Amino acid sequence: MVLDHNPNRRETLKAGAAMAVSAALPSAAAAQAPARLKLRVLETTDLHVNVVPYDYFRDGPDDTVGLAKTASLIKAAQSEAKNSLLFDNGDFLQGSSLGDYIAYKKGLKAGETHPMLAAMNALPYLCGTLGNHEFNYGLEFLEHGLATAEFPLVCANVERISGYPLVDPWRLFEQSFEDEAGAKHLLKIGVIGFVPPQIMQWDKANLDGKLSATDIVDAAGKHLPDLLDAQPDLVIALCHSGIAGGARRGMEENAALHLSKLEGIDVILTGHQHLVFPGGKAFDDIPGVDNVKGALNGKPACQPGFWGSHLGIVDLELEKRGGRWVVADFKVEPKPIYERTPDRKIVPKAAAEPAILASVKADHEATLTYMREPVGSTASPIHSYFALVTDDPSVQIVAEAQIAYARPLMAQTRWTDLPILSAAAPFKSGGRAGPSFYTDIPAGPLALKNVADIYLYPNTVQIVRIPGAEVREWLERSAGIFNRIDPAGTGEQPLINPGFPAFNFDVIDGVTYRIDVTQPSRYDNDGKLVAPDSRRIRDLAFAGQPIDEAADFLVVTNNYRASGGGNFPGTKTTVVLAAPDLNRDVIVRHIVGRKAIEPKADGNWSLAPLPAGLEVTFLTSPAAVGKLPAGLRAEPAGDGPDGFARYRLLA
């Protein structure tokens, strides 16, 4: 039985509560000892239309994702427990190529079932909440999707401009459970949901003038009293918001820890961060967070990864005390669908459920066709054979897409007048991965799966604010990929430092500069300042003038870099926007929106000229023959080690 939140039905709720208490009264014999009841709460979160264990970009199976695999864990977890409830914590309508196919190609008409919901309808979800990505395709698309959900959704901090809720703020469910002595009890389970209020910024074009979003904790304070008036035995918060420390200032994106302080909430299911709790390193040393037991201010909490990677399992022991049920003990386990061995091999821990695969079979196959068909075109080839020695189109397209994405977002903030730069690295540049590990997309039709060649990692977009002086330091750190070239040297001098990962070689678009590799690297491979008097970055300019080192700039980057990855100066504590979108998705949207692109390198950086007579070499793929970029003075210099080709720079 489901009881509505409508305040006009308050008396109905109270009457229902009295009936529930009456129905749940234990026998006289059982009343001699407190009743103990075990209840297993299961959670999925951030599924992002990952149903089939398949990587549509790489066009092959992927054992690390997919609700079809999580479903087998759900089935096993339910078989192990007398009593269980399944919830979803949001971000289910957008994310994978299957989701893009529905949104961009097939469309979703009224009455049609979205494949993600078809898969979820095949599972016994009791309730769900909305994630921020549910709003990416507009309200009509969202409402068409939700109309076919066979389970209710709740969200307390979003409402229409008219004042009416978009979905119910909370729901009350009456279900019968069996205690450890075999007695039946009718419990009322209250469920309340939340989404980051930043949806009004992230999806302003879709939501402005239609919806409003409020602070998560404030919304809980508004709606919890109504829910508690209905006398629930247990209240579960579906909080599509992550776990972060620090003082509460209001409108937090990651507010689960603050929410846990409110009386009346018993369990918090979190998400949004795409992390695993308990156990994730990001949650160490945060006051109020028990990263071993899985608790926020003493209350059980879980965050089970993303894309179906884990099933959240919260085992509760409820005890009847003074006529009401309380959480006497709990255990939290985010259970994975795979494990990664020390040598980086993937070991599946779950099989795909055939019924889930069958529910999306037609749309999955249509997505494969969609991903393989051209969705645009590129007038220029996109390859990364020379990306470490000259400005390169494979990096240029990332820079262009990131800036196009950032401009409208930052126009809504107090940083609207700051210049926007873009940092991107050539991910596929040979190295330890071998001579075939390069991007190579010919001019002509461009398929979505080609984007995986351009941007390998599932990073999310972040924007940092730094002064011009730190733009220079960022580039100095990046220039550590080059060995120092001795201008008086007489033998061969390899240019590239093999111990420096290419994903840390950031090119910053929006400024111009040269790199003088005859100078020592200012930073070592670990980002430690080792040569404070050395400067490799020369002629750094913005808008044709020497950069103002005191002026502020916005740099679009990814969550890895913005969180300190690579130990770049000026990034870790200066984030002004942690966007909800993958960098890869930003590139996809850039291509889809423009249809025809021409990602030519703009030559904003180059190596400073070297003295004549030096033998400076670098390695690339043998497939680079005939693809030397215009303006790069280099020539083949024979075979290199391990199947690479050697090239020589010319003065």
From TrEMBL:
Catalytic reaction annotation: a nucleoside 2',3'-cyclic phosphate + H2O = a nucleoside 3'-phosphate + H(+); a ribonucleoside 3'-phosphate + H2O = a ribonucleoside + phosphate
An example Gene Ontology CC term for this record: outer membrane-bounded periplasmic space
InterPro entries, sorted: 5'-Nucleotdase_C, 5'-Nucleotdase_C_sf, 5'-Nucleotdase_CS, 5_nucleotidase/apyrase, Calcineurin-like_PHP, CpdB_N, Metallo-depent_PP-like, TAT_signal
A Pfam family recorded for this sequence: 5_nucleotid_C
GO MF annotations in UniProt: 2',3'-cyclic-nucleotide 2'-phosphodiesterase activity; 3'-nucleotidase activity; metal ion binding; nucleotide binding
Cofactor(s) the protein requires to work: a divalent metal cation
Subcellular location(s) of the protein: Cell envelope
GO biological process: nucleotide catabolic process
Domain annotation Calcineurin-like phosphoesterase: ranges: 39-274
Class in the EC hierarchy, top level: hydrolase
UniProt name for this protein: 2', 3'-cyclic nucleotide 2'-phosphodiesterase
